[in-house]
Design goal:
With 411 residues, the chain is of the alpha+beta class. It is built from 15 helices and 8 strands. It has 3 domains: 150 residues, no CATH class; 152 residues, Up-down Bundle (Four Helix Bundle (Hemerythrin (Met), subunit A)), CATH 1.20.120; 91 residues, 3-Layer(aba) Sandwich (Glutaredoxin). Strand 7 and strand 8 form a beta hairpin. Helix 1 packs parallel to helix 3.
Length: 411
């Protein structure tokens, strides 16, 4: 079979299946989101697997034209569609184990038939196993959770990985900015940390408070006004644009990326998402929009859901922490003696009216987000999973661990 036919079939085959599936069973919003995310996940992981394959000799390619990083773009996209969008649209309810087994078997059968475009090495099955484990199976899980609107935290984590890989790691690799001196990269990484923390905090708020993700087709089910959204209306777009501006100091090509990110956020995203929010939340959305600016963060939060932080008055260290918070006049936050809580608390506890609850370091981090933008950035950094765990471990080791309130103190 000629290379042109192989490459045409590789891309047109999955596209034809998708068109038929969409015609027979028009997808709803959640199914479209599932197809997009599963395809994007496989595209990212297959880029990585193919890069390793070319270096280790698992397989190689003989192709001319439309080749990116040594990989034919049509084969890569067709592969991502076959493992991502095709099962999400054509067999959304099929058992994941069965779907994975069928697609893995199909791939094992087609890879040897793709010669001379694909040249298999003696250990190509190792690369195939890596692609299945890293791309196919997680992509199927992501599609199923998105379709069924389950596991918002896991879905949001996948999307963070996708945005980091496709929007940050891949452009950095292609532009070669990583070749700059170490001290330059270190300074850039520190500057990049601020918009990164803002963006991660916004994604976390979507998942924890809103029960959704940043993807427009997989939005939160509740209006999110806490966390970064109490300071700026578009924290993710602000984060992305600011991040590209930082990278533009290393390569001017990132200026174009920043311009595109800003144009998308201020244009299409503002129009589309604003229309959706108006339809879903009405007056609540309009009131929030009046309070919080779209691109310029406020120094102090607005529209923050009311919250309480419970601090033990009978504990000297704890009461000092509570007094420190009060002196900073937090917005929409009450400092309440833990002894008045109806449940027996053992750590400092934060409870917000929209259902967000946290204990220990996470509770103090949430309280910081009620003060001003500087302390909020510290709080969002502390809320990152690895950071939160490490800081809590250190504080527990220093004697600030859970404690039982004395009998007769609780009311």
């Amino acid at each position: 079979m000629s290379p042109a036919v192989i490459r045409a079939v590789a891309i047109m085959g999955p596209v034809a299946v998708l068109l038929v599936a969409a015609r027979v069973r028009p997808p709803g919003e959640s199914r479209v989101a599932a197809a997009i995310l599963a395809t994007a996940w496989n595209l990212l992981t297959l880029c990585a697997v193919n890069a390793v394959a070319l270096g280790t000799g698992w397989w190689g390619f003989h192709a001319e034209g439309a080749v990116v990083g040594g990989v034919p773009a049509d084969l890569l996209l067709g592969w991502a569609l076959l493992w991502g969008a095709v099962p999400a649209l054509a067999a959304p309810r099929a058992p994941i184990v069965l779907t994975a087994a069928l697609l893995a078997w199909l791939d094992l059968a087609l890879m040897p038939l793709a010669g001379p475009v694909v040249v298999l090495g003696p250990r190509w099955l190792t690369g195939e196993a890596a692609a299945i484990v890293l791309g196919l199976v997680p992509g199927l899980l992501l599609a199923r959770w998105t379709e069924e609107r389950r596991r918002p935290a896991a879905r949001a984590t996948f999307q963070v990985a996708l945005a980091s890989g496709l929007g940050l790691a891949l452009p950095i690799a292609l532009t070669g900015v990583w070749r700059h001196p170490t001290w330059v990269l270190a300074l850039s990484a520190q500057a990049l940390a601020v918009p990164t923390v803002l963006g991660l905090a916004a994604v976390r708020e979507f998942a924890v408070a809103g029960g959704g993700t940043p993807l427009p087709y997989d939005p939160p089910v509740r209006l999110v006004t806490g966390g970064p959204y109490a300071y700026v209306r578009n924290p993710m777009q602000v984060s992305m644009t600011a991040g590209y501006l930082v990278l533009a100091t290393l390569d001017v090509a990132f200026l174009a990326a920043a311009a595109v990110a800003f144009a998308y956020g201020a244009g299409l995203a503002a129009w589309h998402e604003g229309e959706q929010l108006e339809r879903r939340h009405g007056a609540a959305w309009r009131a929030y929009r009046r309070e919080v600016r779209a691109w310029l963060p406020r120094p102090r939060p607005a529209a923050m859901p009311p919250a309480s932080i419970y601090v033990a008055a009978s504990c000297g260290q704890c009461s000092q922490v509570g007094a420190w918070i009060v002196r900073r006049a937090p917005v929409a936050l009450r400092v309440v003696p833990a002894e008045t809580h109806p449940r027996g608390l053992r750590r400092v506890t934060y409870e917000r009216d929209d259902g967000v609850r946290a204990e220990g370091v996470a509770a103090l981090a949430q309280a910081l987000t009620h003060i001003h933008l500087g302390w909020a950035l510290v709080g969002w950094l502390l809320l990152l999973p690895g950071v939160r765990w490490f800081v809590q471990l250190c504080l527990d080791a220093l004697g600030a661990g859970p404690r039982v309130l004395p009998e007769g103190v609780r009311s």
